[in-house]
UniProtKB/TrEMBL annotation:
This is Protoporphyrinogen oxidase. GO terms for molecular function: FMN binding; menaquinone-dependent protoporphyrinogen oxidase activity. InterPro entries: Flavodoxin/NO_synth (IPR008254), Flavodoxin_dom (IPR026816), Flavoprotein-like_sf (IPR029039), Protoporphyrinogen_IX_DH (IPR052200). Residues 4-169 form the Flavodoxin-like domain. Coiled coil: none annotated. One of its GO terms (biological process) is heme biosynthetic process. It comes from Haloferax marinum. PROSITE patterns: FLAVODOXIN_LIKE.
Length: 194
């Protein structure tokens, strides 16, 4: 059994939901996994006491969560000293169009460059549109973004684009990496094409 920390930045809850599902997969494999919102990090959940760390961030208006950037920059040595990975959640990742997928991949490239961290495993997952939870301005902005990203502009309903099988597959792959301890075998990889 190993201990695995999943640190996430989630504005509207989908990245938190994905993090919890990843923890369920780890727990199901007999590991001790903990998901923590980046703003709730304490000395006990800073990463130094865990055997492996996953970091997840949502994308809003083309940017990763600022707190996640700061966490990775401040803890890069801790991350690189153990098996680690990164996953991103965005509407762009849900669109099968090659240009839109390239845009989603560019967000990851910018994150890696901006933090100077090179995760052992990388994934991108489709997010969600929760029109029913948005205020007027956010609903308006998200409808404009969704028009290009997914085409789902009916604000009378919510949409979820996360492929849960891909989330579970990524979690299983990361768990296998941790169990074997062979980070060099897989190296940096894009596990999902959500």
């Amino acid at each position: 059994m190993v201990s695995i920390l999943v640190v996430y930045g989630s504005r509207e809850g989908q990245t938190a939901k994905i993090s919890e599902r990843i923890v369920e997969v780890f727990d199901g494999r007999g590991h001790d996994a903990t998901a923590v919102a980046v703003e709730d990090i304490t000395p006990e959940t800073s990463g130094e006491t865990f055997d492996a760390i996953l970091v997840g961030s949502s994308i809003h208006l083309g940017k990763h969560a600022k707190d996640i950037y700061e966490f990775v920059r401040e803890n890069r040595d801790v991350l690189e000293a153990r098996p680690n990975g990164f996953f991103q959640v965005s509407l762009s990742s849900a669109n099968p169009n090659e240009e839109v997928q390239a845009e989603a991949a560019a967000y990851i490239d910018e994150f890696v460059e901006g933090t100077e961290w090179h995760p052992d495993r990388i994934a991108k997952f489709g997010g969600a549109l929760r029109y029913s939870e948005y205020g007027f301005l956010t609903r308006f902005m998200m409808k404009r973004i969704a028009k290009d990203a997914t085409g789902d502009t009916d604000t009378s309903r919510d949409y979820e684009y996360t492929d849960w099988d891909e989330v579970e597959s990524f979690a299983a792959d990361f768990a296998a990496l941790v169990e074997t301890g062979d980070v060099s075998a897989g190296g940096e990889s894009e596990e999902t094409q959500a």
